Amino acid sequence: MALTLRSVPPARGAQWVLDAWRLFRRKPLALSALFAFFLLAVLFVSLVPLVGGVLQLMALPLLSLGFMIASQSALLEGPVGPAQFVEPLRTPGPRRRDLLLLCAVYALAVLGVLQLADFASDGAFEKAMAVMRQSNPAPGEVDALLADRGLVTASLIAMVLLAALSVPFWHAPALVHWGSQGVGQALFSSTLAVWRCRGAFVVYLLVWFVIVLGVGLASALFFGVLGLRALAQVASFPIMLFVSTLFYASLIFTFNDSFGQQA
Predict the structure, then answer these.
(1) Can you tell me whether residue 122 is helix, strand or coil?
(2) N or C: fewer beta carbons within 10 Å in the chain?
(3) What's the confidence (pLDDT) of residue 120?
(4) pTM of the full predicted structure?
């Protein structure tokens, strides 16, 4: 399918989030269930010995692409379901091969970033990730990690590099699927598209920062006033599910404005 690279004004970044909210209101249960299904599938993938972590990372580009396919279907009054996550893998050989290669490149790049962060912190970064995976970490262990200056530096390195990595991979899965582009071309086209719409993406990210911060503060204040701080942890999952679903629903609008509406 022919794609045309476009530019949009900065204010369009806020409109992407608003459009995602309007789309979510059309099919709230279907879109929420779609994200919950992905979380469940990733949980099972993590149980695969040796390669579970790598497969989890490889699944993330498929998550964004599957959500874009589902969101576009919802925009056209079509169905929304888990099968849309595997729909790209049913395409002809070259596109399927390039998509799997893209997923592998993404996983290796993320692992490289995490290894670099761990090296910069002299192993503290890996220890922190292990503690985060525990259900009830010891308070002393958490305090010791937070006091480690190397961990702060490593966390900043990881945040900056992962943010930079998101630029070439932002549109890349959709460009492979809808544009039949190779891996290298898709990564370049995605980088160019994000750069041309950089003002809109800055606004877009600022809006999401305000939403996440606002939802977190409102939740803490609400349950704090009621004296139900323990219940706040229980409520955090549906809140996270809602915000994450809304975010992934917005991806199709960033793509359509950058490359044109997809059928």
Answers:
(1) coil
(2) C
(3) 78
(4) 0.87
Polymer length of the chain:
263
Q: Three-state secondary structure along 187-200?
A: HHHHHHHHHHCHHH
Find all residues with CB under 8 Å of 226, minimum gap 6, and list them. Answer: none
CB atoms within 10 A of CB 190: 24
Nearest to 57 by CA among 42, 47, 72: 42
Query: Helix axis angle, 93-120 relative to 172-179, nearest 10°?
Result: 170
- Cβ atoms of 37 and 229 within 8 Å: the answer is no
In whole angstroms, give the CA distance from residue 245 to residue 127. 30
The answer to whether residues 125 and 118 touch, using CB atoms and an 8 Å cutoff, is yes
pLDDT of res. 136: 61
Burial 144-159 (b: 16+ CB within 10 A, else e): ebeebebbeebbebbe
